[in-house]
Amino acid sequence: MCATMAEIRHCLAGLPVLAVTAPGQREAAPHHRFWGNESMNETERRQLADRLSGMSFKNAHREMRGIDRDAVLKYFRNSIWDEYHTLWLLPNEGVEITLVEKADIDTLDKRDYSGPPSRRKLGVKYEYAEARVEPLERPVAKF
To answer: How far is the C-alpha of 108 from the C-alpha of 114, rounded, in Å?
Structure first.
């Protein structure tokens, strides 16, 4: 909890708050993950990837906001070779999560002829394959 105006300014700026431990002595408060100073280690990333891979695609999407409320959806179903990637950036956790889907080969060439030509689409069925969790390489721009 921020008590003085200086501590409130530090809290709002995302800087570590200085905690008074004894009269005349000050030391920096421990960094919290909320400020983005720490990122997940390898085992935490692997556990998160396993947990997200066990969910459905829709539940994995919902989980992103639960993990980091400042999560940014960078792109949705971007086609990369035979996979469709959905990229989430989690700046407070310091990771990027790629949800990987594969197209069902049987339905790839079937078209939907039920509507006018402008509304027709390929009948692609997406199958959720895995989640990949990697550390962020550069900071995320806040909008």
So the answer is: 17
